[in-house]
Design goal:
This is 2-keto-4-pentenoate hydratase/2-oxohepta-3-ene-1,7-dioic acid hydratase in catechol pathway. Keywords: Metal-binding. GO terms for molecular function: acetylpyruvate hydrolase activity; metal ion binding. InterPro entries: Fumarylacetoacetase-like_C, Fumarylacetoacetase_C_sf. By secondary structure, the protein is an alpha+beta fold. The protein has a domain of 141 residues: Fumarylacetoacetase-like, C-terminal domain (Fumarylacetoacetate hydrolase, domain 2). The protein is 16% helix and 36% strand. Strands 3, 4, 5, 7, 8, 10, 11 and 14 form an eight-stranded mixed β-sheet that branches. The protein has a four-stranded antiparallel β-sheet with strand order 13-12-16-17, with no helix packed on it. A three-stranded antiparallel β-sheet has the order 9-6-15. β12 and β13 form a beta hairpin. It is globular, with a radius of gyration of 16 Å.
Length: 216
């Protein structure tokens, strides 16, 4: 699977995701904010490019949208400190971490992994990426999600529990990062259920827009 950065195809390696990175979102789901990043992975087959329909899994009755800033890692990185972390990022994009919330609740209650709830085909919608040098300060970015024209989520990276540089440094120390890795950085409050036919518009003002539609 590939993503686009400035009209150049980039091969995707690991897809990292950060959970509970905005306190208000953690609160709306009744979750605590952790002392270090909550990390989970999605398979590459979960990636869905703009223009492809979102097909909701037939084993869930409650798939939620979660709009997020996504990082494209541009070089291999191991044990990188926060001061150097931003230099590892090749591009910034937007994505949707789709979640079968009913399934997630079931498996969490049993102490089981979330993969069935977070890793189904199409569960990682991702836009094209803009070059990192076009983003002056990733700690001061705002982004939004509209569904059928109605504003549902507004994100401000200044409200992240773990800023972009902290996330990159942490992942490089614990797992190691490789060129082509993607990092979904967490969602703000306002998540909710998707319905067949919904039209989703994501925007990083002045930098990019992306859109998807849920299959009927």
């Amino acid at each position: 699977m590939h993503v686009q950065l400035s009209e150049t195809a980039q091969r995707v390696n690991t897809v990292f995701c950060i959970g509970r990175n905005y306190a208000a979102h953690a609160a709306e789901l009744g979750n605590a904010v952790e002392s270090e990043p909550v990390v989970f992975l999605k398979p590459n087959a979960a990636l869905l490019h703009e223009g492809s329909p979102i097909v909701l899994p037939d084993y869930s009755q409650e798939v939620h949208y979660e709009c997020e800033l996504v990082l494209l890692i541009g070089k291999d990185a191991d044990h990188v400190d926060e001061a150097a972390a931003l230099s590892c990022i090749a591009g910034y994009g937007l994505g949707l971490d789709l979640t079968a919330r009913d399934v997630q609740s079931e498996v969490k209650a049993k102490g089981l992994p979330w993969t069935k709830a977070k890793g189904f085909r199409g569960a990682a919608c991702v836009s094209d990426f803009v070059a990192a040098n076009l983003v002056a300060d990733p700690a001061r970015l705002q982004f939004s999600l509209r569904i059928n024209g109605e504003l549902r989520q507004h994100g401000d990276t200044a409200l992240m529990q773990f800023p972009v540089a902290t996330i990159v440094s942490y992942l490089s120390r614990i797992y190691g990062l490789r060129a082509g890795d993607l990092v979904f950085t967490g969602t703000p409050e306002g998540v909710g259920r998707l319905q067949g036919g919904d039209r989703l518009q994501l925007e990083l003002p002045g930098l990019l827009q992306a859109a998807w539609q849920v299959a009927p």
